[in-house]
Amino acid sequence: MKIAVTDASIFIDLYELDGLRWIKILELEVHTSNWVLNELDTAQLRAVEQIVDCTYTVSLDEIQHLKAPRGLSDADCSLLSVAERLPKNNFILLTGDNLIRKWCHSTGKEVHGILWIIDLLIEREMIEPKEGVILLHKLRKINQWLPQTEILNRIDHWSAL
Q: CATH assignment of 2-114?
């Protein structure tokens, strides 16, 4: 089972899509930080706690001493701290944050987002492409920060299947 160090944006998107269960279906072991959990509202937190396998307590001191890109929130930095604690090839980061993605690429860490999760569900035939299209339309409404071109390309491709 692969460890997925997960940020709040992924949890929120999955919660809004009623898809938190997909993490377990995809056989990912969910790790996160106390800072990330603090970003969730009460209902989201209750649901997310059901799928989290390990929560790391990251201190403010650890965050302040971390060599992280400027512009990251303390919660985002806490994820980088968690990532630094794990063996390099034994985890992926699941995030919607572009700065974290850039940091992962520069440090050789595997990183993915919500679209990758939906891609995997279709690739592994856990959902039909037409259901993927419905999910992407919902996702566009709840998260306008996602790459619209990538979403529209998937919608076009999956609609044609």
A: 3.40.50.1010
DSSP conformation class of 11: H
- Helix 8-16 vs helix 42-49: angle between axes, to the nearest 10 degrees? 100
Mean pLDDT, range 13-34, rounded to an integer: 96
- What percentage of the chain exceeds 70 in pLDDT? 100
Nearest residue to 5 via CA among 52, 50, 43: 52
Question: Which residues on adjacent β-strands are paired with residue 91?
Answer: 3
How many Å apart are CA 94 and CA 32, to the nearest integer?
10
Q: Where are the domains of the chain?
A: 2-114
> pLDDT tens digits, residue range 108-125?
899 999 999 999 999 999
User: Which of 86, 125, 121, 123 is closest to 6 using CA atoms?
Assistant: 86
Tell me how far apart the alpha carbons of residues 154 and 146 are, in angstroms, rounded to a whole number.
Answer: 13
